[in-house]
Amino acid sequence: MLHKFNHRMKEVYGEQCLPRCTVFRWCHRYEAGRVNIKDLPRPGQAHVVTNSATISTVDELIWQNRRITSREIAVELSISNGTVHHIIHKKLGYGKVGAQASVRES
């Protein structure tokens, strides 16, 4: 049955078809009683979702102290430095602003 299923998928999708091993794995999971194709949760560090509360807290900390570092924000909010960087640059759209260059007259 699995071979027929995979063959039919190849006919329909051609080269864009999923690999045979993936199709077989999904079919075995379905036959074992699983109806969801998502992977089961794995042990390890949980993925922190950047929700609106965290984003607004980071923004508030930056507005309170413009010289605060991303490491200080990470420690205060107990999130990773990478998450803070993602929030600052991708979610809030902030970037570094260097000092203005001035023309030196001799």
Automatic annotation (TrEMBL):
InterPro entries (alphabetical): Homeodomain-like_sf, Transposase-MT_Hybrid
A Pfam family in this protein? HTH_24
Which coarse location class applies to the principal site listed for this UniProt protein? nucleus
User: What GO cellular component is one of the record's annotations?
Assistant: nucleus
> Where is the protein found, in the record's own terms?
Nucleus
Q: Which domain of life is it from?
A: Eukaryota
Name the UniProt record assigns to this protein: Mos1 transposase HTH domain-containing protein
The record's PANTHER family line, in alphabetical order, gives: MARINER MOS1 TRANSPOSASE-LIKE PROTEIN
Q: Which organism is it from?
A: Araneus ventricosus
